Amino acid sequence: MRILISGASVAGPVLAYWLTRHGFAVTVVERAPTLRRTGGHAVDLFRPAMNISEKMGVLPRIEERATGTDRMTVYREKARRPVRVDLSRIFSAASDRHVEIMRDDLSEIYHDATRDDVEYVFGDSITALPPDGEVRFENAAPRRFDLVVGADGLHSNVRRPVFGDEPRFKALTARTSGGP
């Protein structure tokens, strides 16, 4: 079975890793020309993600790149003093396993774990998903896949051809959830 994953940040490569381990041929398409290195933001991995990363064999690399952040100071407008928070206490209350890592570092680690077994296509994106399985791309020739997975974020190139334009989808979501 041939599977196409749209998005090479975190979810795409992790899914690709497990699908290839179960015998699927996986291609990941990413609209950015290379792995994104935008500075990103810190993300927190708790027990489930730590366990998955451990099974993937990448946990030591993740722990090497941990931010080590254990305190936070919040400065509130019109407040006399800042609020200081011991994050280690919050994290330990939530899970007995935790690490904070920059998103770009995490993305690179997961990509490195899959690059030998997964076809990565950078600098391209999905433009159409006809029912016959022949996926159309912005730059590459059409290709046939048995399954397409969108792991490409909030403004997904996979959602648009399947569900329609984002404003229409947001309006539908608001109506079905009791919103305006």
UniProtKB/TrEMBL annotation:
Cited SUPFAM superfamilies: FAD/NAD(P)-binding domain
The keyword Oxidoreductase is assigned to this record: yes
The record's annotation in Pfam families points to:
FAD_binding_3 (PF01494)
Q: Give a yes or no for keyword Oxidoreductase in this entry.
A: yes
InterPro entries xref list: FAD-bd, FAD/NAD-bd_sf, FAD_aromatic-hydroxylase
**Keywords, ordered alphabetically:** Monooxygenase, Oxidoreductase
Q: Which residues form the FAD-binding domain?
A: 3-161
Q: Name one GO molecular function term.
A: monooxygenase activity
UniProt name for this protein:
FAD-dependent monooxygenase
